[in-house]
Amino acid sequence: MSAMVPDQIRTSQAKDDWKPLRKMPSQPAEKYRIGEIGFPWGDAEKAQWLAQTTCHRSYLDEVVSKLQNLDFNNLQVQQYGALQHDPARFPLMAVFSKNWDANKPSILVTGGVHGYETSGVQGAILFLQTSAPKYCDYFNIAVIPCVSPWGYERIERWNRSCLDPNRSFGDDVSKQTEESAAVKAFLHSLGMEKGKWLLHIDQHETTDTDETEFMPARAALQGSVYKKCEIPDGFYIVSDNENNDIGFNTAVIESVKKVTHICPGDSNGTIIEEPLTQDGTIIVPVQTLGLCASVTGAKYATTTEVYPDSSRVTDEQCNRAQVAAVEGALNFILSSN
Ligand SMILES: [Zn+2]
Predict the structure, then answer these.
(1) pLDDT for position 28
(2) CB 148 within 8 A of CB 168
(3) Whose CA is closest to 232, among 252, 209, 208?
(4) How far is the CA of 205 from the centre of ligand 1 (A)?
(5) What's the predicted TM-score (pTM) here?
(6) What b/e sequence results for 222-259 when a residue is b if at least 16 CB atoms lie within 10 Å of its CB, and e otherwise?
(7) Measured in angstroms, how far is the CA atom of residue 101 from the centroid of ligand 1?
(8) How far, in Å, is the centroid of ligand 1 from the Cα of 203?
(9) CA 334 to CA 280: how far, in whole Å?
(10) What are phi and psi of 299, to 5 degrees?
(11) β-strands 199-205, 140-144 pairing
(12) Residue of 156, 305, 316, 327 marked active site
């Protein structure tokens, strides 16, 4: 049996089908450790992938236990589900305003949609521990600090089924994951249907392991190969090309600038091959891709991308950068309304 070896692929053909070509025919294919070039993975390769993941850290210790010491005058904790393969180990946790008030604007912060992106999770917890209570005077606040807890423990991008949770939040139910379905059900339980939210910040990282592991794995899943590109040094945001507010983006970037450096873009004026539309900002079709940042239909929504592998930042700074992004967004809303 022979297979057509793809002579060119898109950056993320599997995930989004729209990015510009990255691999050209003249560039040699690098084989990922699982599967064969030209053959998309079947159940056997997916099982092989799952079997070689290992647990690196405890979600209960590093996430759930930290939700036991918050300002419970203003906040409440709720379990909104559990990962079905091990419910005791992976309860799905949300924290939200104790006095949810229909007259206040509502805001959502999500972290750990990609479990390996640590500051997304720890930054959401830091926000709950520090500034969230004081913003409860003005906003209904909901925080889901770790959408994908199995990925957090394994330091993986996908869930156990080789599915990327951050492509599963669109209206196409066939692309839904256990993680996205649980989040949607929780938002529904708050009485907060799509379009009722004012703000959503989805907290992510761009890491060196994107290039060495996660993007090659994604290409291999489709039977394709991946050409490495440059990981940008610095913070940036990914906003929605259909719902892009320049003033809002600026407020987020200016706030983060006080904590860490902003990615300047490469010599072509791009970040991950997307053109910078303003300082530290690229825009993508968030709704079409089914990104988590599309789940609320909020007027203001963006995805943060902290770069934790920079020699110029500490883990603590990365967490504070996530908090600064949320604070910048909230202060923008307070000052413009
Ligand atoms: Zn991510």
Answers:
(1) 52
(2) no
(3) 208
(4) 5
(5) 0.92
(6) bbbbbbebebbbbbbbbbbeebbbeebbbbbbbbbbeb
(7) 31
(8) 8
(9) 22
(10) -60, -40
(11) unpaired
(12) 305
Residue 332 · residue 251 · CB < 8 Å = yes
Interval 289-316 mean pLDDT: 96
pLDDT, tens digit, for every residue of 252-272?
999 999 999 999 999 889 998
Q: How remote is the CA of residue 241 from the centroid of ligand 1, in Å?
A: 18
Chain-centre distance of CA 138, in angstroms? 26
In the three-class reduction of DSSP (H, G, I as helix; E, B as strand; rest coil), residue 128 is classed as: helix
**Rounded CA separation 164/207 (Å):** 16
Nearest to 89 by CA among 57, 118, 117, 113: 57
pLDDT at 314 over 70: yes
List the beta strands (DSSP E) in the chain: 9-10, 21-23, 75-82, 91-97, 106-111, 140-144, 199-205, 236-240, 270-271, 274-275, 281-284, 300-306
pLDDT bin (cut points 50, 70, 90) of residue 18 is very low
| Alpha-carbon gap, residue 174 to 274, rounded angstroms | 28
CA 113–ligand 1 middle distance (angstroms)? 7
Looking at residue 38, its pLDDT comes to 83
In the predicted model, is pLDDT for residue 59 greater than 70? yes
Is 305 a residue of the active site? Answer: yes
Q: Which two tokens stand for residue 21?
A: 């070509």
Compute CA distances 141 → 106, 109, 120, 317, whole Å: 6, 8, 17, 23
> What 3-state class would DSSP assign to 251?
helix
